[in-house]
Structures are given as C-alpha cells and as structure tokens.
Write a structure and sequence with these properties.
25% strand, globular, alpha/beta
Length: 137
C-alpha cells in the first residue's frame, strides 16, 4: 500500500482486458501514459477524467487524441481531487497517489479492492464525474 505504487498501477493497467477508467487529479507520468497507449492498441477502452489546470498540460493534448477525456475545471478553491482507477469493472485501485512525475517522491498510499459493492460505488462516482463534466469539452 505504501511502496512501489507506480509499479502497482502499471501492473493493474497491464491486466486490463476490456476497460480502464481513470479519475486522477494530476496526470503527468509518461510511463503510465505509454502503458495506457499499449492497452488501447490491444482494444481496451480507456477513459480519463483529470483536472483542467496548468499543471496537467504536459499530456492533455495526447490524452485528447488517444482516449475519451473529461477535463474538470477548477471552481474557486474546489477542484478534482480523486485518485482512482477501475479495471474491467472488477476491481478498483485507489489512494492518495497522483499519477505525476513527482508522486514517487512523496509518502503516498495505494490499495486495490475487489469487493463488488465497493467497485460499484467507484464506478458510480466515475460515471457521475464523466457525465456531469463531459458536455463542457
């Protein structure tokens, strides 16, 4: 839960057979992006929800070209703060870890849950974020 989080995320992505749905506030990690491209090439559906802020601009254009993308705008002090990934609607990876270049240097958490109701709750949250922010872009 506390060590080698980036490797755990990449392993989860590599296991995906059908869908990868990501809601993560900060996403600038090129290695994780490349893994997502490889899964897309294999036919896996990839959807990304991320924060529409200057810090994320590094990969936003690539996300827009390659995946279904929703950018959530900052509203005053409120911003997207989620950090989770749903794989094949079967399990969810979640924690405090942003998918950023600086995240491996922080003390972060990351866990995986297989509980069907738990995964459903994250899936409902993902769909809510996706649908309620999709029309803006």
């Amino acid at each position: 839960m506390f060590d080698e989080i980036k490797d755990k995320i990449i392993q989860g992505i590599r296991r995906a057979e059908y869908t990868i749905w990501i809601a993560v506030a900060w996403f600038t990690d090129i290695d994780i992006y490349i893994e997502l491209i490889l899964r897309k090439i294999d036919g896996v559906n990839v959807r990304i929800i991320t924060s529409d802020e200057p810090t994320n601009q590094t990969l936003i254009a690539d996300f827009e070209r390659n995946f279904e993308l929703v950018k959530v705008p900052k509203k005053g002090f409120n911003r997207l703060h989620n950090k989770f990934c749903i794989i094949d609607l079967e399990y969810v990876m979640h924690g405090s870890y942003n998918w950023s270049n600086t995240a491996p240097n922080n003390n972060e958490t990351w866990a995986t849950a297989l509980d069907r109701d738990f995964v459903k709750n994250f899936t409902d949250e993902f769909m809510n974020l996706f649908v309620n922010n999709y029309e803006r872009y």
